[in-house]
Specification:
Rossmann fold, Dna Ligase, domain 1, D-amino Acid Aminotransferase, Chain A, domain 1, 3 domains, eight-stranded antiparallel sheet, five-stranded parallel sheet, 16 helices, binds ligand MV4
């Protein structure tokens, strides 16, 4: 492997280019016409325009990407996250072209991407799951029967969904059939597949995910967990590692469970096994993400492993590095996602960044594509930077994060930097006493105080 095309944009394209450069690999960026002046296009050794701004005509266009790959003569493609990163057909096309897809095999992307088949795999591997339907619930009669078995509240999820899209919470039998039909229609319209399944609903869980690393020689390790409970409408806002309420024995148990799941399919590459942790400390399997995640840096900081380099080295056929084999969790890391958005409405706020200052100093890392004079386009995700703080313990990481948020300057557009500072001053957050419901409650209280 000598030359890698990065099929993505923004901070993750920059992150992958940096990893390639450290590995001595030539890089080929692709960009849309809206991204001509983007940092990833400037940093790569070569840069190719693949089409107009709207993603379906550029970053999501397999023909455009493969033309660029052929033209540049690359050996491999890194998909980043989002876009085509979990599209098994894209991985298949790469295979047909003799180009290495830097990720798992298409079969694994497919099997784990479908939540019903992922559940079946997890069940075989003895992974704890919430009570639910055996597979797809096809008829109304079946839905009523299963709902009576598992009780209320319950949740209806789309087999082809994920990341919280296409879910319906049902509180009583009177709402079941209407929401079941609605879930099927929305699943068909949203994902092209109406299949839905049913699970018991867990009301105030924490979102805990395990980082998996597996090579092509059967070696599989986990690198501990990340707590991603601070999210709004399924958009994560703050992530941390380790989870502040997990004991070492719970960590070992969840980690081993995730490894067993990966072993059951012969998984290769990076992956993330997502679990819900309930108030009683029990954990339940949710889904597997087969890509590098936005929040991967917090794991990098507490393990010392460069996950993106590891992912590329695995795709080159290497065995897990010594850094992974000997990794220990030490210290604490927190990530704040900095978005270009109106702080009160959360609406995207694209525009020109007239001045930009990145914080630094001990324990601070910034992953971003912003520079002074850069215009944040309106067509894409509003995340413009990830601010990551590391400390010996959670308190030190929090102190550093606060001072870095105060130091960071992004002029010309609006951002959520001040919002992060408010969350980091919340007593419940400081205690680590949070759940996926935290932000909802925080925002209600904040509104009463007049923002
Ligand atoms: C759940 C759940 C509670 N009970 N499943 C959302 C993301 C996806 N990976 C799984 N998700 C959830 N699944 C059961 N059986 C809670 C979530 C969930 C969530 C639900 C509603 C509102 C915000 C949420 C944030 C994280 C997880």
């Amino acid at each position: 492997m000598k030359k890698v095309l990065i099929a993505n944009r923004g901070e993750i394209a920059v992150r992958v280019i940096r990893a390639c450069q450290e590995l001595g690999l030539h890089t080929v960026a692709v960009h849309s016409t809206a991204d001509r002046d983007s940092l990833h296009a400037k940093l790569a050794d070569e840069s190719i325009c693949i089409g107009p701004g709207p993603s379906p005509k550029s970053y999501l266009s397999i023909p455009s990407l493969m033309s660029a790959a052929e033209l540049a003569g690359v050996d491999a493609i890194h998909p980043g996250y989002g876009f085509l990163s979990e599209n098994f057909e894209f991985a298949n096309v790469c295979r047909a072209y003799g180009i290495k897809f830097i990720g798992p095999k298409p079969e694994h992307i497919h099997a784990l991407g479908n939540k019903v088949s992922a559940r079946a795999i997890a069940e075989k591997a003895d992974v704890p799951m919430l009570p639910g339907s055996r597979g797809v619930v096809r008829t109304e009669e079946e839905a009523i029967e299963i709902a009576r078995e598992i009780g209320y509240p319950l949740i209806i999820k789309a087999a082809a969904g994920g990341g919280g899209r296409g879910m319906k919470i049902v509180r009583e039998e009177g709402d079941l059939l209407r929401l079941f039909q609605l879930a099927q229609v929305e699943a068909l319209n949203g994902f092209g597949n109406p299949d839905c399944f049913i699970e018991r609903y867990c009301a105030q869980p924490r979102h805990v995910e395990i980082q998996l690393v597996a090579d092509e020689h059967g070696n599989i390790r986990h690198l501990g967990e990340r707590d991603c409970s601070i999210q709004r409408r399924h958009q994560k806002l703050i992530e941390e590692a380790p989870c502040p309420v997990l004991s070492q024995s719970q960590r070992d148990t969840i980690g081993q469970t995730a490894v067993n799941l990966a072993k059951a399919v012969g998984y290769e590459s990076l992956g993330t096994a997502e679990f819900l942790l309930d108030e009683d400390g029990r954990f339940y399997f949710m889904e597997v993400n087969t890509r590098v995640q936005v929040e991967h840096p917090v794991t990098e900081l507490v393990t010392g492993v460069d996950l993106v380099k590891e992912q590329i080295r695995i795709a080159m056929g290497h065995e897990l590095s010594r850094a992974v084999r000997e990794a220990k969790i030490s210290g604490h890391a927190i990530e704040c996602r900095i978005n270009a958005e109106d702080p009160s409405t959360f609406a995207p706020w694209p525009g020109k960044v007239t001045a930009y200052h990145e914080p630094g100093g001990p324990g601070i890392r910034v992953d971003s594509m912003v520079y002074a004079g850069y215009t944040v386009p309106s067509l894409y995700d509003s995340m413009i930077a990830k601010l990551i703080a590391f400390g010996r313990d959670r308190d030190e990481a929090l102190v550093r994060m606060r001072r870095a948020l105060r130091e960071m300057k992004v002029d010309g557009i609006r951002t959520n930097i001040a919002f992060h500072l408010k969350v980091l001053d919340d007593p419940k957050f400081i205690e680590g006493d949070v759940s996926t419901k935290f932000l909802e409650t925080f925002l209600q209280n904040d509104a009463q105080k007049g923002g």
